[in-house]
Amino acid sequence: MKKKITVLLLLCFMLLSCILTGCKEIPDETADKTTAVPGTDTETDVVTETEEVTTEEIIVDEEPVFYEKSEKDPIDPAAADASGADWNSTINNANMLADGVQGKFTDAARHKFLFSNTNASLLYDLNTEGSKGIAAIYNADGKPYFEGVSDVCILLDDGSVFSASESLNNGRMNSHRLGYYYYDFRFCDQMFVSASAKEQITDGEGCYDIIANATTWRTHDTTKVVKSDGIMSFTINDSYDPYVMGKVKFDTTEYDAIQITLKTESAQTGNFYIVAGSQSNYNGEQNVGFRFNSGDWVTCVVPLSAIPDYTGYVTGFRIDVGEANGELIQIKELKAIKRGESASPFQLERVFHTYSDKMHEVVRIVAATEYEGGGRFESTIKIPADTVRKFVLKNKDGEVSELEGFDFSTTEYVGFDVKGTGVFGIIMPALEDNGDIRVELKDGYYVITRGKEIGGKVKIKGDAYFGHRIYTTTSHQFNDLRKEAYIERNPLTDVYITKSENSSKYAGYNALTGCYRFTISGSDFNRAYYREPDKHYKFNTLISGDGVVDRTVYIQTSEPVGQLECAAILDQNDLMMPIPLEVGKNFRGEIEEPFYDPNDTAYGEVYLPLTVGKDEVKKYTLLHLYQNWGNYPLKQLSFIAFHICYYHLSVGVTETNCIAPYYVYGKDGWTLPDFRANSAPLWSGQPQHTSAGRLYFLQYKDSDGNAYKSESQSADILSAGPVYADINMEYLSDDGKIKATYRHTEMPHKDENRTYYKIKLEVLEDVSIKDFKNNFSFFTFDGRSVIYSHTGYLNENNEMITEKVKKGDRMIKLGKEYPYYDYYDGNNEDSVNFALIVLGSDITVGGKKYDGNLVFHDVYDEILNYGSLSLDLDDVTLKAGDVLELNIILMPWGYSTSKDDHNVRDVREDSCIDPYKITVIKGEAVEDDFIPSVKASNGTAQFKISGGKNYCAIRVYGFENYTLPQMTAKADGAEVEFNVSSDHGYDGYQVYLDSDGTYSFSFVVNMDKASEYELTLKQ
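The structure corresponding to this sequence follows.
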């Protein structure tokens, strides 16, 4: 009895202490600790510091704070005073949020995908049988609110249930938008299958065996088809366009899908083309794609009903699969099947509109065939009841903490405080026809169900959807949920275009995607390049708080042409602000997602966060940019919608590079799918250049013969333009032993496309490699569809060599004085050449500095040129702690008419032997591998810039505010007018908020007009 009284007194004292000290949470010092990353397949051992039983954390709930919409009158935008706007809060917040969203596959086979923002991370299972869907949502510390599949189901009126988690198709991740603040992570391709009737699909009865019945298999870019022991196989000869096709005959009314069991070495995507109905030949419309994992046998079921003319008899069947030369493709099952009652004719698209500090979900089903059977579709989340400390439910009548008697028809939000993790909630937007929500206590779980009726007839590729905001915090209080629910359901109303230009309009708050939308007319490539290079499309905007609560809002501006390149933002005094802007676009007509987005609507968009105080008025101007910025063409990095995640870079409107961080076709390693030469002729139809080859980074084979590529881990945009483009990308090798970091930098060069790369490989664990020079590649290029007849390189005697390409496989030892190699003189009239130039290296192998040569591995088999860069080493063990660094220039150049490689030699001269050089007079030099940089002293920087060619981007650090410094210049000793701006007066430079709280500026100088400039900047 005495012991119980002591414990009670202790608890009372702790409770009183919490009340008096503001309820500070008591840290759980004895909890198990792990360094595991949520969603990864490898975890460190759990370390338990003590076996003592811990006391559960005591939480005292805050007094609830509810918000009500103000009845204040709308402001007059013409008379509103924005002089008190706090732009520092927006600038600081935007830079804090920049690069706040990341996403990665958690394993080399891409079974799961994990994405995160500053508040939470979500793990999506793409291919575990019966568990395809959300696998877990974690807080910012990596602790789960729940684990176990969050499913989407279709429920028919007759009681049938079809589950996306049971899909025989693996899920697929794509994101059309990626950048500083916002990704739209899209999980696609899952079918809805009845688990109880699933065996109908896989039992093999009532099918048409294509392998057994097809005749006259023909091939393209592959070896002949071989059949042995029931397995059909072939090897890829040329990865440009490999496929096999055979004659078949089966009735489309009897079969509605293809079941394939295959095994590939690297390919993870395929397409079926069919000849059916009124069609007599294969064509681009009569096909359907599918995704799978490489390395093991995998079975996919691919519906054919979405193919436009799937009628009559199928008389021809073609399989397009294979990514790499020499890749073996094996197929042991290829059948036309009838899914029958085991499947619902819908496919899932689950979209997570993820911002740096919030997340919205849209659940969408798309019909593969016309449907009018009624029913509803639902998503569910199950939270173990014994992990919930408290929950709240809010509807029009108020907030409660009990299920009984609650009217879910007007639900505004639901929230659950999960022990040791924090509050998880769903906020319902104030939208009509957005489905419903309910919460049940069932079998020991709180089950949150979102659902919507499938009404009327749904046409082929028609859809139904609902959406909401997912709320998370590590706090165990509900007041922030209450505030965010108010913000979400009560968007600002005092939002205006103050001066309409180019049809600019405010289009309202989009509650499904979570941003305030503005629209404007736009330019196109030809008009921007030839007719209006200096035109900026302007949003003159006013936004005011609602008198109730401070908030951060996300702005989206949009043009309908789909050719937007870049953007800038000015304050009310027309000063450019250091707010990173996320820009992107979609071209119309490429139809990257033919099932989910058949219309392929064009758009150009800009995203940014603004802080808006409850009583604050902000005025600003946002500019849509296309060609020039100041006196020079702009240089930018943006997103572009495609069938994979894609960064797009250009000089003005002329594309230079594109980066595919997760590669182009599955795990093929192809990183730069668009690689365009400024020195090649422009196309006749628009100001663009032809692309060159396929480009791959780290690849190696260990001493046991296992081949490895790598997976993207994160991307940090350092500068998205409009002065220069700069991005850092981190990868991890498939065996987890090498961390690779790539810095990709571009200036607005017009003579050549010098793509600067810093490659840094950090060895995390020992890895042994036999015949290193043949089995380890820093970088690889192949000609794709072009055969190059000549190559050039710097030999081991530092002599510049050009020669005809010879059939065979050879290893060329390169010289040490800025080595290079190139390919040119292609057999295609519209071909572009390739070069790699080494600026410098710092390499440690086996704990010792490497002083040997780089080697150029040149392979030509009369179908493909293949060149890679390695070290002149044989059997090697890379040791943990080894670092291998290279600074290189990747350069597409010239044209098929090029008969020598003087372009490459010229760039080696101007970028390596006589590169851009900074000589500081006042201030100090700032080390940067590619961008000449200086730091001001007492508000002044004075320096000389010399060397190099064409347009050089310079960055100057160390200023106290974002007002453009006064700039004066001498060119070769003579004073010259130095004005970075065009007639607009506000353009020509870029401003940044740096990590130390100071500001830096970048701008461009033309190094072709003087051999040396002396520049002075004063603020």
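DSSP finds eight helices and 75 strands in the chain.
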